[in-house]
Amino acid sequence: MNMPILHIPAARRWLTSGAAALMLMGAAPAALAQRAGDIEVTQAQALPSIPGARNGGGFLTIVNHGKVDDKIVAAASPVCGHVELHTMSMENNIMRMREVDDIPVPAGKTLRMQPGSGYHLMFMDLKEPLKLGATVPVTVKFAGGGQLQLQLKVEPRDKIAGSAAMPGKEMSGKGMAGGMH
Asked: What is the average pLDDT value for the chain, to the nearest integer?
């Protein structure tokens, strides 16, 4: 039985839109916001590895749409031995990085993690270098019970930092880089 010519353009449109949807789904993990309850991650990024480095940094923008404070209490990734929650600050022109028990995400606020200051995820004992364009799977757990499976896109520092200030410097109208606003 021959297919009427009338259906060929419809089939072509369906195949074209299906292919486009599949391509978008491949880009979705790093590009689209993900949500667990009132917590939404709008950007999930990591820095490419420095040659010879065994550790790496991950950065998120997290919005707490709720009326209750929450906090990140743990993170894990198969690309490394373990993930630590970290903060970084400049004290007397010396960079100080330390592990913290949790990362606060206050109600109605946005936490913007950026290189150079504030909170970040620290990938310890990387199994292989993080390369530009790759994605890093990370599970982030919140005290309020939420959990997100994220794909952090490995991007250059200037793309992650955007308008971030240098360590110890204020960002105009936005508070400290890596802080809440």
From this structure: 78
Single-letter code of the amino acid located at 87: T
What is the per-residue pLDDT across 159-179, written as a single tens digit (0 to 9) for each?
A: 885 544 333 333 323 333 344
For residue 57 the two structure tokens come to 């940094």
Neighbours of 33 (CB within 10 A): 11
Among candidate residues 174, 33, 19, the one with its CA nearest the CA of residue 109: 174
Six token digits for residue 166: 């240098």
In this predicted model, what pLDDT tens digit does every residue of 13-58 receive, in sequence order? Answer: 433 334 333 333 333 344 468 998 999 999 999 999 999 999 999 9
- Are the beta carbons of 74 and 121 closer than 8 angstroms? no
DSSP H or E run through 153: strand 147-154
Q: Which two tokens stand for residue 2?
A: 């021959």
Q: 144, 37 in Cβ contact below 8 A?
A: yes
List beta partners, residue 5.
Answer: none
